[in-house]
Design brief:
The longest helix has 21 residues. 39% of the residues are buried. By secondary structure, this protein is an alpha/beta fold. The radius of gyration is 22 Å and the shape is globular. The protein has ten helices and ten strands. 46% of the residues lie in helices and 14% in strands. It has a five-stranded parallel sheet with strand order 2-1-5-9-10, with helices on both faces. Helix 2 packs parallel to helix 4, helix 6 crosses helix 7 and helix 8 packs antiparallel against helix 9.
Amino acid sequence: MKFRTKIGSVSLTAKIDYSTKIFAVGSCFAQNIAKKLYQAKFNIDFCPVGILFNPASIASTLTTFANEQSADRARIVSRAEQFVSLDVHSDLAEDSFDSAVEAVNSATALGNKLLSEAQCVIITFGTAWVYEHKATGKVVANCHKLPQSEFTRRRLSVAEIVEAFKPLLEGALRGKNVIFTLSPVRHIADGLAENSLSKATLRLAIAELCEQYDNADYFPAYEIVTDDLRDYRFYADDLVHPSAQAVEYIWEHFVASALSSTAQSLLPRVKKVVEAAAHRPISPQSEQYRLFCERYLQEALSISDVDFSEECAIFRRYSNKS
């Protein structure tokens, strides 16, 4: 008897190696994948302006990075005695207007560098619902708890999303491996019916982009949670975000789908080195721990494709190896 429908294996066109420079941008779920890649010692960076939920803001941010555009001063707003841009996450809030402008410009300069150097870009859409700032008529990345009366809420169309990403896939993202994902996080504040409509809109837009551009692929994180796992026990206590177990299951599928065979074979060895460096012994000065560190130092040095500089510094400290 079968009690669930398991998702089939997916093989993405271009594979990620340990030498691949990766840039992740999008919703909070994008951070989950980015964190897993970071913990596995891949060369990955997350968008320096923070979490971005909707495709319009993601496309606008990538365009700003590509052109290294200066901060739009008209988009800097004041809230709770701080200043922050409507185009970035609240983490970039500052105590003065000029500092907020500088924070956005610094993040943009870094974003330009990371995007231009990236060989793989992971883009995660969260919601098709957007808020337009009435004063500027532009979609905002974050409302920063400003009065709702200052915004107009609407849903992006499939065509709008596709048209926003065409110039990027033909420009700044051209020649890069682009992996689109759809966040399984449920935006229940929008309403369950509206959330379903939003996810369907995003999925259709991604399908069109992947059909039109050979360098674009789709990884089915959304379907893994909603169709394969399909149970509330795989959600966190808020019944909105995937549980740690669900994220781990998605990660296993991502490894099989997106990583090269060489990277996959290295993963268990990398995990052991990282865990060894994180180990805290009862007696750090013991001979047993010195030998432990010496063994894992040699193991780390034998894996030439992975940056173990932090781990090696720990092992050298206790193994007396210079």
